[in-house]
Amino acid sequence: MPEPLDSVLAEVRELLLAPGLTRAVAAGRRRGHVPSVTRAQLRPVTLKQGQRLQIVTDDGARPFTRNVDGADAAQAVDALLAEPFGNWHVETDSATVQVRVTKKGDAQVHRSSAVAAPRNPETHDRAKQWLLDPGDPLFTVVGGTAAKRRQIDAFLRALAATLPDELPTPLRVVDLGCGNAYLTFAAYRYLAGRGVPVQVVGVDVREDQRVRNSAVAAELGCSADVTFVAGTIEAAELPFEPDLVLALHACDTATDQALARAVEWEADWVLAAPCCHHDIAAQLKNRGAPSPYAEVTRHAILRERFADVLTDSLRAALLRLHGYRVDVVEFIDSAHTPRNLMLRARRTGARPTDEQRAEYDSLSGQWGVTPALATMLTR
Question: Which residues form the Methyltransferase domain (predicted)?
Fold first, then answer.
């Protein structure tokens, strides 16, 4: 139920200036207004001079950081609250408050309890700017190895590069083949931190994963926003049609199932990090290569690597034929995983050209393969 904006902003002000603040983000804009900065982040830090409130604002060109205390902190917070931001996300050691300003100028507020133990304010010096703070409660629950932090950060950077500044509210997300869901939770924590309400559903075929992941959501205090279902990617029933579809390391044709469902839902954004590529590799093994490429598929290791490239090339082409703009990018450095590609797709609704159709037909026809995704999209 909408609440008066002034009273909600007064509540936000109190949280921002209270000792228990963990972090806060202001972003977006209200209807008919443009803030002087695109985004503001606040967090407590400990400097040699003592505890300060760090405020990082971004005008779209570069970030600007300042550390303030006392009356200066109150003045800086008041100035930010006067900006016409469309969303606020505030986390303290006892609560999380998400605020969205409606078109009518009221406030939609979501309040929840915090589950993490209070953290000491962070030091000013940070060697790396992580998109999800290494001190985030998520890492306490799922573990925070260096490799896991790197993978999460690489994933979130790909996600950030895919999504626009203005997001739908609420933003509806599905993670197909979510497994133990640490990337699912990372996406939720990051997106919620951008100040928009987020609804997430994770899908995995294993019931024990659903039970485990639901328990983690409860421990993180986000079970109202992050839910899990047990079922196949093809048959999973969701409470909404998603805006964003994730498929991260789904095996073989499970990636194709996820992409087919994304097209079916007309999802605005898709991020897929394919795992193994057995389907096309098997088709290449069972037929001869076109001249003069026999040497490419004669050796098993070369055939496997070529199948990876051909599979993802055909996937990208098929998504383009169905109204998506696609980039194939490095997901994480190949030193950390041999499966390091990600397909990032944004729906434009553009109709395919005759040249694009001919390119796909020529590529698949020359190698005599029928991608699983092509079959799924014609059902």
Answer: 148-283
